[in-house]
UniProtKB/TrEMBL annotation, chains A, B:
The lineage of its organism: Bacteria, Pseudomonadati, Pseudomonadota, Alphaproteobacteria, Rhodobacterales. InterPro entries: DNA-bd_dom_put_sf, MerR-type_HTH_dom, MerR_fam, Tscrpt_reg_MerR_DNA-bd. It comes from the Bacteria. It comes from Pseudotabrizicola alkalilacus. GO terms for molecular function: DNA binding; DNA-binding transcription factor activity. Keywords: Coiled coil, DNA-binding, Transcription, Transcription regulation. This is MerR family DNA-binding transcriptional regulator. CDD domains: HTH_GnyR.
Length: 130, 130
DNA sequence: AGAGTGCTTGACGTTAACGTAAATGTAACG
DNA sequence: CGTTACATTTACGTTAACGTCAAGCACTCT
């Protein structure tokens, strides 16, 4: 069984992040490692939170979004209103992502058309400028 | 027929940008308006370039990318090697956009799964942390 | 004790594309 | 000539998520 307390380096190796990142997350109040004198010791709790953080980032949430979600979660995991709030946050983010994808689709289609048509951006751009 | 020379405000109204933006583009050498004393006067040429700039932005090109493309275009619109170069830039950008869309698709799918499964991000995040 | 290794806390740097504010100019109107 | 309405330059501010030193402590090995 993996030790309950991990040094910053062990954390970095385990999660593929830099020490700077972990300290940054602590400064932003996303993590709260214990101290052994001056050194940080990360608990299971920190590891769980870090997983959530990295997962949230993959979803495109900002660190601030993530912090809010984690705070709600820690304050009272069973509070219905807060769960709803988080749900709404996720829904909102999902809508953003889908809108972004739609824009991207349009841009990709247009750019492909340029390439297919003129054989070069320039030609496409010139036509667009008429 | 619309006058050949336009003030900064006319440009802003016509293209829905701010004066700051036009001055910024000039500073970045994307536009080269004439001067009437101290005031800028934008020519048809500037308008054509601005259209290209805004179009490039929709494609997700950086201003620096756009500047390079415009420079090649102005220097010699018929130079084959330069046309090829621009073509490659566009291809590269297209590849980036498609990669980005792929990532977005994965994230959207995952996030949807979370929402469908647990009814809340928190639940999803908790399962992920186990 | 000296060397090496790893950890710590500052604190400034990076990137893009402008926003915003301050001080000044100047053209036209009445 | 005074006011109004835009224009100009200069230059610092913004945002996110860290990167990159710099200087120094803490422990261990020899």
């Amino acid at each position: 069984m993996t030790n309950d307390l991990m040094t910053i380096r062990q954390m970095c190796d385990a999660f593929d992040v830099t020490p700077r990142t972990l300290r940054f997350y602590e400064a932003k109040e996303l993590l709260f490692p214990q101290r052994d004198g001056t050194r940080r010791l990360f608990t299971r709790h920190d590891r769980a939170r870090l997983k959530l953080i990295l997962r949230g980032k993959r979803f495109g949430f900002s660190l601030e979004d993530i912090r809010q979600i984690l705070d709600l979660y820690d304050r009272d995991g069973s509070n219905h209103a807060q769960t709803i709030r988080t749900y709404e946050l996720a829904q909102h983010r999902l809508a953003q992502m889908e809108a972004q994808r739609a824009e991207l689709d349009v841009a990709i289609t247009e750019l492909k058309a340029e390439l297919d048509a003129g054989g070069a951006m320039i030609a496409g751009l010139r036509r667009a400028a008429e």
